[in-house]
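Thread: Newbie trying to understand structure tokens

Hi all, I'm a second-year student working on a class project, and my supervisor (Dr. K.) asked me to get a predicted structure for one chain before our next meeting. I've only ever worked with sequences, so writing a 3D structure as a token string is new to me. If someone could post the tokens and maybe explain what I'm looking at, I'd be very grateful. Here's the chain:
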Amino acid sequence: MKNSFNARSTTDDVFKGIDLTGKTVLLTGCNSGLGFETLRQMTRHGAHVIAAARNLKTAQEACAKVGGSTTPLACDLSDFSSVNKAIAAVRATGRHIDIVIANAGIMALPKLEKLYGLEKQFVVNYLSHFLLVTGILEVIPQHAGSRIVILASSAHTRATAAGIEFDNLSGDRDYKPWVFYGQSNVARILFARALSRRLQGAGITVNTLHPGVIADTNLARNLGLVMRALAPIARLFTKSIPQGAATQCYLAAHPEVAGVTGQYFSDCKIVEPSAAARDDAVGERLWALSEEIVAADKDS
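---
Reply by user tm_fold:
Sure, no problem. This is what the structure looks like when written as tokens:
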């Protein structure tokens, strides 16, 4: 596969010569960091972006800042009912969704928090995106170069060797912030691989990525006072936001990866994730369990 980009490439670099006029993008986490940079570039290059944030006001404010063609959308990933309302709202627009970018997430919560009896990072980072993406598949055109891009992280390697602790999804046993953040990212990678298999032959690509280490995003808000105080120094050695958002924009829009699916990227290049994140039998078990969980919520 030809590759023109690297760790220092920016969103300006990967979007050079790209025209997204006529394309509709669904983007989560549009209001800050990598999500806002992605929103800015997608609209700048002609796409209509359905821009999702935790509440409508935040989404509206982000859309107002970039101008362009947008539809603000409330989608609180900590609330399945909000995600289901967002799915209905996307369908109600009557638009086909050409590009999905599952960008939003939370990182390394210092204390165990639970939603629906499950550890919160697993719900917000993975399960709600599973619900959202599978809920809009019917409005993603087949055989038209559609793309699904799911953010993950190299921190997936910090999960346990099992990858997914099916007997401890609540986090009640030995909660560690980075281990459970890692688990949520293993889940995202396994989800992308499983979805890619299901969409084989449909002309819809599904890929995941590590954006790199970026000092200036809201993900770092849980890292503590000392780490936040070191952020000005860290900026000298980490990616800028335009560099951090480059890989997701590359996967969403660049012709070099038009036919690539089921892969994990870093610095705009295919890299191999951990063994746990490549265990497709675990991925299938996770898919079945995820369907059960979201279906049970709808029935409750």
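A couple of things are worth pointing out once you decode it. Strands lie at 24-28, 48-53, 69-74, 99-102, 114-115, 118-119, 146-151, 204-210, 264-266, 269-271. The chain has eleven helices and ten strands. Feel free to ask follow-ups in this thread.
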